[in-house]
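Workshop exercise sheet. Pairs work together: one partner reads the sequence aloud, the other fills in the structure field after running the prediction. Swap roles for the next sheet.
Pair: D.N. / O.F.
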Amino acid sequence: MTDTIPHRPGRNEPCHCGSGKKYKHCHLAADEEEDRAARAKQASEAAPPAPEEEPPAPQAVPPPRASNQPWKRAAQNARGGARRITTPRKAG
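Structure field:
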């Protein structure tokens, strides 16, 4: 990136145009826009457009394996985890 100004002032320093305002309130937005346009022009000239590629197709998730253990299927809750069995607290 080449600046058109040999030394760009800091955000809180006086502006290079001599207005007496801080640089961030005077010319910062304009200078950044010039830099952004120069970078975009340089990028468009440097690299030819890449050919459009199709995005990869989403892969299907295989269904869970069938279990021949009915006691394990009964011990699962709706979310697939084991059922939590709680015993009453002993009083006394």
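Discussion prompt: The chain has a mean pLDDT of 77. What would you look at next?
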